[in-house]
Amino acid sequence: MFGLNKKDTKFLYIVVALTLLTPILLQPFPEASPLAQFNAGYPDLMQRFAIFGIFAIGFNLLFGLTGYLSFGHAAFLGIGSYATVWMYKLLSFNVLPGLILAVICSGLFALLIGYISLRRSGIYFSILTLAFAEMAYRLAYSVLTPITNGETGLQVYSNDPQILMGENSSTVTNFFGLEMSANYILNVGGWQFTFNFGYYFCAIIAILAFYLSVRIFRSPFGMMLRAVKSNQQRMNYTGLNSRPYTLAVFVISGMYAGLAGGLLASMDPLAGAERMFWTESGAVVLMTILGGAGTLMGPILGAGFIKYFENIFSKINDNVLHSWFSFLPDGLEDFVVFIIHPFVGKGWHLTLGLLFMLVVIFLPGGLVEGGQRIAKLFKRKKTTPDDKDPEHHPKPAPHVAE
């Protein structure tokens, strides 16, 4: 079904179910519980899970399949954001034209950058992509101020043309009138579940992006990309030119990043040069490696892991810690808070770094490898009757000498 084999189809169904149930799955604790700090079912964070999942899926197509490590993918993320906001300024707040322009613009820039960068491989390719991304960041920050609005960032103003904006048109980002910021809250007992249209819009696009990546992985095109990663020199010796394949996947990967940038602008119609900074490129590299490079689910897990802990640890302050350990004697309570304080709040980078180290050291294959190990622990080895009963194993016929 959907052009996939039975195993991939079941896997796709699982991904769809988990994605649609995310607002419920990410609210495991009641609002009154001290552990409610670990809930992540609020719209802004859920949208980031989906958006950066798309970003990581696209990067994994390049790095996971070909082995080409790009340090400049943030450039396409920023280009997608700028293109989308410009569409808001010129036409209306409808997100669809903005996303289409974001994908087209990022694809064209990826074609240009990839055509030059892919003349080299290995570390030289990585440095070239980093240089292009840094150039794009500096241009957006200073030289191209009339287009990007420099350090202030590009945003929509009341005097912008917005030629398709009618009197009754929405003044917030929307999909043909359905507002991206629309929330529907469901209270069940002590739980509060927020269903946000913007999240489901991003989630459906993420599912489609994931489906496309599965098709690419299983296609002859994907097989050629694996051959490039396995031994590109040997592939060239056979007479096959690998450059069209690597350039094609570089452009596709850039279009994924542009789509993610456009969705970021759909969440908040503001585009700034900081989205093109090298740290964003480094973040998507970490997401892919952390989840499991070259796997289907790895980039999504890595993106969710980073964004979840980044948000959870950063909002745990001293007041939260004191509420958790208030049952301890005063002196002991203060001591415990003093010990944990450097790892949360403003020190969340330290905790996230330690988690990265643990995953890389003990799970070289990323979180996907961890899931596979857990599955093996619970998987019961099936034995057939032939393995148990020796009577089912007939003795070999005696050898008769000729």
Strands side by side in the biggest sheet: 1-6
Shape: globular
Rg over CA atoms: 25 Å
Helix and strand sequence: HHHHHHHEEEEEHHHEHHHHHHH
Number of strands: 6
Query: Structural class from helices and strands?
Result: mainly alpha
Low-confidence stretches: none
Summed over residues and divided by their number, the pLDDT gives a mean of 88
Largest sheet: 2 strands, antiparallel
Helix content: 55-70%
By DSSP (H or I, 4+ residues per run), the number of helices equals 17
Straight-line distance between termini: 57 Å
Strand content: under 5%
Fold and architecture overview:
The chain is mostly helical. The protein has a domain at 6-28 and 39-277. The protein has helices spanning 6-20, 22-25, 43-66, 74-90, 95-117, 123-143, 145-148, 197-218, 220-237, 243-267, 278-291, 298-314, 318-324, 330-340, 348-362, 367-378, 385-388, and strands at 154-155, 174-175, 178-179, 183-188, 191-196, 270-271. The longest helix is centred in the middle third of the chain and has 25 residues, at 243-267.
Features:
63% helix; two-stranded antiparallel sheet; 402 residues; 6 strands
How would the blueprint of this fold be written?
Blueprint: H1 6-20, H2 22-25, H3 43-66, H4 74-90, H5 95-117, H6 123-143, H7 145-148, E1 154-155, E2 174-175, E3 178-179, E4 183-188, E5 191-196, H8 197-218, H9 220-237, H10 243-267, E6 270-271, H11 278-291, H12 298-314, H13 318-324, H14 330-340, H15 348-362, H16 367-378, H17 385-388
Antiparallel strand pairs: 1-6, 2-3, 4-5
Helix pairs in contact: 1-8, 3-8, 3-10, 3-11, 3-12, 4-5, 4-10, 5-6, 5-10, 8-9, 11-12, 12-15
